[in-house]
Amino acid sequence: MKKLIGLKKTKTAVFISGTGSNLKNLIKFSKKKKSPISVDLIISNTRNAKGLKYSRKYNIQKKIVSFENNKIAEKKVFNFLLEKKIKFICLAGFMKVLSKNFIKKFKGKIINIHPSLLPKYKGLNTHKKAIENNDRFAGCSVHFVTTKVDAGKIIMQKKVKIEKRDTITSLAKKILKKEHLLYPAAIKKIYN
Core-most of 78, 136, 160, 164, by most CB within 10 Å? Predict the structure, then answer.
């Protein structure tokens, strides 16, 4: 066990469903001396999530929980969180909506990163919507998770200019780069 001088990091779980680029970014951030969090658990609702490889690479415990039955799944997840003494949750491309009950248990301790400038474009297909509506800017937001999807208090946002030649893919790539800067900055802001 590494001892941290003067700084007790908050035990954090990261929930993923896909490639895990924000997960990898959060793990790297958590290893920094000034980071207020340590990533102690990775939860995925899908066995094939590419991001699960980071559990092996960084020696972090992972749990794969099928969300076919939400109630059972959330109970399992909640028990894992208690077992690992998790105090903070970061959703990073987690494609499931958590129940009111679950969110209440972790009130104010769950945050999410969303690929739009909230309150614009909650939910899916945010890049497509921004391009189709001829928006000049798109971006990403980190917000607290509440019982309404993508509606919690915004912690921080970053903007990206939409160029004429941008496609859904090129815009997604530009925004992802900003997400990797934004998520750690928003966590620091919460803890300062």
Answer: 160
On whether both 12 and 93 belong to a single domain, the answer is yes
Pairing of strands 10-16, 154-161: unpaired
Sheet holding 110-114, edge to edge: 61-64, 37-44, 10-16, 88-91, 110-114, 137-144, 154-161
pTM over 0.85: yes
Catalytic (active-site) positions:
114
Strands 110-114 and 37-44, bridge-based pairing:
unpaired
Look up tokens 């970061």; give the residue.
Answer: 90
pLDDT band at 108 (very low <50, low <70, confident <90, very high): confident
Which residue, of 107, 138, 168, is where some domain finishes? Answer: 107
Amino acid at residue number 115: P
**Which secondary structure element, helix H or strand E, spans residue 53, and what is its range?**
helix 53-57
pLDDT surpassing 50 at residue 20: yes
26: amino acid identity, one letter: L
Kindly write down the DSSP assignment for every residue of 63-101, as one continuous string. EE---SSHHHHHHHHHHHHHHTT--EEEESS--SPPPHH
Residues 126/116, Cβ–Cβ less than 8 Å: yes
